[in-house]
Each structure stands twice: as structure tokens, then as C-alpha cells.
User: Which sequence fits this backbone?
């Protein structure tokens, strides 16, 4: 996609963010939240003060979002954790990759030295493939850790890369 603008989320982005997030949560295939989770619950999580939340715009429309946060407090705070979502109609158009590259630079600017994903659902092949292409390695696999809406219990990966 061309003409992508990546920026910090603003309070007025909240309803448009929910349009990206709600169908992904409702599908029950990639995030741990109950499919019927409320906007208040999810937006409270996604926009919480412990996170730096960003949006990706294309032609004035929000098409993606991600957050950065310390993976652990204190002695583990040099490793960043992140979560990413792309609006379904724009999947496969390079938005995830653009957000990833921006997030790596932003995380470094914020003082982080590495990035760790604690919970990548193994059956989420698009995400696993993207993260591998972006330099992440699978450093662990947790059996039956995710209750997938269609597949039942499935494994999750812990993925890591240095910044």
C-alpha cells in the first residue's frame, strides 16, 4: 500500500480503532479475549497507560494499529512486547510489515533492545510467516494454550528478535 501514515493514536481514534479490533476479537482465532468482549474492555486494554498505541492510516482511513509496552517491569523492561491488528479488508497488502518496521524503529527510540511476542497462535500462519520474515525466531512453544473458536485447543509460540 502507498501513502501510509503511522502515528500515535489519539483519543478521537477510539471508535475507528474499534472497527479494526472488533471483528478480529469476535473471530476468536488470534487474540485471547472472549469473542463477545465489550468495546470498553478491549479499548481499555489497547489504550491503557502502560502502552504506546499507534495507528496506520491510508488515504485518511485507519487500516491498522499496534501497541508497544515493556514486556516485564524493572529488570525485564528493556524488552518490548507488542500487539498488531490490520483491518480485514486490507490484509495482505503490506500494512503489517510497514507497522512492524515502524515499530522496530520506535521501540529502539524508546530505549528497548529486543522485542518478544509472548503469545502468537500457531495456527495464525500469516502472522507467524510475517514475524519470521521480519527476523523473529520461535524460542518456545506452549501446548494447548489457546482455545481457538474453530480448532479447539492449539499451541502458541513465544517469538523473539533483537532490535
Assistant:
Amino acid at each position: 500500500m502507498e501513502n501510509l501514515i503511522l502515528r500515535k493514536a489519539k483519543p478521537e481514534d477510539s471508535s475507528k480503532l474499534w472497527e479494526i479490533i472488533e471483528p478480529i476479537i469476535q473471530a476468536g482465532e488470534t487474540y485471547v479475549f472472549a469473542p463477545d468482549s465489550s468495546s470498553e474492555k478491549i479499548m481499555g486494554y489497547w489504550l491503557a497507560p502502560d502502552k504506546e498505541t499507534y495507528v496506520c492510516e491510508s488515504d485518511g482511513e485507519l487500516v491498522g494499529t499496534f501497541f508497544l509496552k515493556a514486556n516485564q517491569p524493572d529488570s525485564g523492561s528493556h524488552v518490548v512486547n507488542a500487539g498488531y491488528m490490520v483491518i480485514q479488508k486490507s490484509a495482505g497488502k503490506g500494512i503489517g510489515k510497514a507497522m512492524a518496521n515502524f515499530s522496530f524503529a520506535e521501540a529502539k527510540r524508546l530505549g528497548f533492545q529486543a522485542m518478544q511476542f509472548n503469545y502468537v497462535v500457531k495456527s495464525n500462519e500469516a502472522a507467524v510467516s510475517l514475524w519470521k520474515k521480519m527476523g523473529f525466531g520461535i524460542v518456545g512453544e506452549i501446548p494447548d494454550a489457546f482455545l481457538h473458536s474453530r480448532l479447539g485447543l492449539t499451541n502458541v509460540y513465544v517469538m523473539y528478535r533483537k532490535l
User: Anything to note?
Assistant: The chain has a mean pLDDT of 95. The domain at 4-162 is CATH 3.40.630.30 (Aminopeptidase). The chain has one domain: 4-162.
